[in-house]
């Protein structure tokens, strides 16, 4: 079966519409964000403000503000950052976010967690020792010591303790039972999965945010800096379920993320391999797959796969048993803003790089052709300028008598 046709974009489930409230505020749109974060700047806390995004998003984004904005008041900074965020989140989408917040609050005010120890991160009980040590050392060498890179840009490593997997599976089952018993209508993780649950919606957002900030960001900064890996500031965390009476497979798609963490939680199953088909930008998302871009990966409980969100992939059918995976879509608002000013060729899209190399090859070939033509022309001109007139063509001397 070929997967070089149309590629879906797997996004969060959405609902709701909105209209502008007509409020006019001063604009800071003429000021650009810094490409690299100001690590010497200590951002303000936004925990006490009622904002559209998690307060940590604003704290993270503040490090990228232009120097002229760092000296202004907190309200002005917030206004500037709201305008930046609004460029890829229109008014209707912001209304949807508000409705989603209300939906989430309704769940958390009624759902009783089964394992409260899951709701705060505990590294020694969540992660395997090798992963904790590598993150603690925080060097390329330490990361390389625990990971495998079976195909360019796809990193696999042991991450979760079996006991944590069991606890999280138990919590998800408890949540699904509550949903069934109360007949509460929940949103599914994304537009392509009909089964599974959004972990952020029933209280695990803070834990997953810390997981991203303290454990995934260091690796993303090392391996995915060119796609926003060093400025991740928000996430979408969920579980997906495959098997009998669940989703069977997952079609060819790209994720709505800059970096994706995918960890198998269990249980017993066969099939369900991930297949990858190369990294693509929006312009080339449906371009053909090159032979070197084909790769398949078999899930192992507790083992993680880390890859770019734009790395095209899918999942073959789970042929028996029940497979559940934890997904963390990590996003960078800074990268999404800067991507608007992207040059003709992106550095991370496989097809962009092929086009660039082909253009360079054609340019070099054309240059060589011109040089060869000039050399031939110069040689011809040189021969013509030194040509000796044959004797028969020389004027004859006449004797006058």
UniProtKB/TrEMBL annotation:
Stretches the record annotates as Disordered: 1-45, 381-401
Query: What keywords are annotated for this sequence in UniProt?
Result: Dioxygenase, Iron, Metal-binding, Oxidoreductase, Vitamin C
Cofactors (names): L-ascorbate
| Pfam families assigned | OGFOD2-like
Annotated Gene Ontology MF terms? dioxygenase activity; iron ion binding; L-ascorbic acid binding; oxidoreductase activity, acting on paired donors, with incorporation or reduction of molecular oxygen
Descriptive protein name: Fe2OG dioxygenase domain-containing protein
Fe2OG dioxygenase domain: from which residue to which, for each copy?
A: 233-332
Q: Where is the composition biased (Basic and acidic residues)?
A: 1-13
**Source superkingdom:** Eukaryota
Comp. bias intervals (Polar residues): 381-392
